[in-house]
Every structure is written in structure tokens, then in C-alpha cells.
UniProtKB/TrEMBL annotation:
<protein>
    <submittedName>
        <fullName>Uncharacterized protein</fullName>
    </submittedName>
</protein>
Amino acid sequence: MSGGYFDRSTYAMREIANTIERDIARALKPKPEKIQEDYWTIYEKDCFGSYHSHKDFMSFGSYEDAESFLLRDKTIVKAEQKYADRRFFDDGVIFQSKKRYMSDVPDDEQIPVLYSIHHCYYDHYPYNADVLELSNETIDAMKEAYRQIRIAEIYATRVDWMMSGDDSEESFRERIKEDLEEFEKEYATKDWTFSDDNDE
């Protein structure tokens, strides 16, 4: 049977359902062990409205290592208390430049470039891991979305074939019922951890 009444738009419905199915399978895959990060880095504020990593991004094993590296530059000193009190960084201002000043400062105030040493402590999956984290509630909703789209696809396909002259009205009604029954059996026993992407 060829159809064509809906210009084969039903294929897009199946592709949406297949994509949802693949994403559910990804979310249900066993997750790799997370990597723990624990390091110190230096932030530089040379513009009033933002800050960035000092030089290229660098990480240090301790606060002392980061401080030692920063103070090798003899134009950088401990920050005056008035800058620390203004909370330019979440971690507080620790150092300031003796020669460089921020750009884009309101009211032409002269504020030195400021520095903060920040402790980074977090864990993450390996960067090359294909991990999709979804709650059980979200996965259940996606399963129902898959079910509804597949049902809509069945109806649309059968209407397409009838309106294109490939099925009679009687055949349309009979096959709708058969297709829906077959799909509900498939859905009830579906292995959500498997998708076509698992075939290699």
C-alpha cells in the first residue's frame, strides 16, 4: 500500500516516537562512575561587569599553590579592605593590581584589576560519556508521549490509506482495531532499555 493523502507526514510521527524511544533507552542505561574534581583556580576581574580566568585557565592543588603563582607577579598585592568589602567575587576579593585598572567602571571611578582564588569542588561524568539523566517521573511521561504518538500514527496511517483509495471504509475500521490491539500488546511488554541504536 502506498498512501500519500497526508504526503507521507506519518513518517515524521514515527521518527518522533523513535527519537523518544532512543532517549528513554539512553536515560535507563547504567551510568559510568563520576569523576571527582577538587582544585583551586584564579579569577581576574578587569572589567566592572564581568570576570574571567586569570591568563589561560589554570588549576592548582591547593590555595597556597595558587597564591604563590599569583604573587610571582610583583605588581599584584593583597587587596585593600575597601575592595574586599564590596564583594566583587562570591569568594571575596583577595588581591589587586598596583598598575592595571578595570574598564567600564561607572562614574569614572578608578578601581584596580582584582583577583580571587576560587575552590572548585564537584563531580561529573566522563566528558566523552553519553549520559542522559532524567527523573523517573519524566521517563514515565515520555513513555506515555511515545504511546500517544504511536497511536496517533496508527490512526493517521490508516486514514491516509483509506483516503488514498488503498483501503475501504470497512477495512479501515477493522485494521484500526487490529493495529491498536497489536500495538497495546507490544507496548505492555516493551523493553525500554533497548532501542535500534543498540544494534551494532
